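A.,

Following up on our hallway conversation. Structure tokens first:
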């Protein structure tokens, strides 16, 4: 195993991951503009949308479409280009590549083929919403778009309900009401939530309060724009204390399912709002 250095070598191609503004064009960095000017090709989620951005910054680099419906065709093509020395920048419609878009598959393919991957820092809706949510941002769980229905959605909501850290979710205006109603059902009326819409744009707005208060608000107001929802984690008061033998059983079941002991101990500690060392000592003392 060796480190793969992110460097620019004119003799080989590489993949640049270039964040684009999530609304306000002034959030485009100097480095992002320079990179898009200097690469040979830009792989864009929507070439029409990206073309507007390039025109604004007077960037004339060629574009190629790269989205969820053509990854099977495009990835081998883009990898082959980079292997011949072509430098490619990958961009999504807005925000940071690989976050809820097909960029992650291209990154994986580049890594597997020993092609350098150069990530640029920049705009991302999830962190922007989190830091203004009023909830504790030190630890968080990012999920993205929830499953729309069925067992997968139910299981995920049950999992989120147990978490003690805030969870970040993306949602469309057409499903916000249903999602908030589900929050009331799964998390109770008092769980705190922050909804950010149209981030960095002219009509940017935040709605903060309990899930019940937010549910009541949307009975009289129609959601507008794209949303980032931050739902608070379960508080210590909400976490019911489990008997020691139940904690031991939970750890052992996770180990039996394939987790390493330390990973299982950490997960059980997090789920029960306990210190990892306490669960560690408990498990090993009883296991001896």
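Then the amino acids I'd put at each of the 288 positions:
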């Amino acid at each position: 195993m060796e480190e793969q250095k992110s460097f620019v070598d004119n003799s080989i191609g590489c993949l640049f991951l270039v964040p684009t503004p999530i609304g306000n064009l002034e959030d485009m960095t100097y480095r992002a503009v320079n990179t898009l000017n200097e690469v040979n090709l830009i792989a864009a989620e929507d070439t029409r949308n990206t073309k507007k951005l390039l025109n604004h910054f007077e960037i004339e680099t060629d574009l190629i479409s790269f989205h969820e419906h053509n990854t099977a065709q495009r990835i081998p093509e883009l990898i082959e280009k980079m292997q011949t020395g072509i430098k490619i920048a990958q961009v999504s419609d807005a925000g940071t590549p690989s976050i809820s878009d097909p960029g992650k598959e291209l990154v994986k393919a580049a890594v597997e083929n020993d092609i350098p991957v150069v990530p640029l820092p920049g705009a991302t809706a999830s962190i922007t919403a989190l830091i203004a949510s009023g909830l504790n941002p030190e630890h968080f769980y990012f999920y993205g778009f929830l499953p729309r229905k069925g067992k997968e959605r139910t299981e995920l909501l049950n999992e989120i309900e147990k978490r003690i850290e805030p969870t970040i979710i993306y949602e469309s205006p057409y499903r916000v009401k249903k999602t908030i109603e589900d929050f009331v059902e799964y998390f109770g009326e008092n769980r705190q939530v922050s909804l950010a819409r149209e981030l960095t744009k002219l009509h940017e707005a935040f709605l903060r309060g309990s899930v019940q208060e937010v549910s009541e608000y949307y009975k009289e107001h129609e959601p507008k724009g794209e949303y980032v929802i931050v739902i608070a984690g379960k508080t210590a008061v909400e976490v019911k204390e489990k008997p020691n033998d139940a904690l031991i059983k939970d750890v052992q079941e996770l180990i039996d399912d394939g987790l390493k002991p330390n990973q299982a101990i950490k997960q059980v500690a997090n789920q029960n709002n306990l210190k990892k060392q306490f669960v560690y000592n408990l498990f090993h003392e009883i296991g001896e």
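The two ends are 37 Å apart (CA to CA). Curious whether your intuition agrees with the design.

B.
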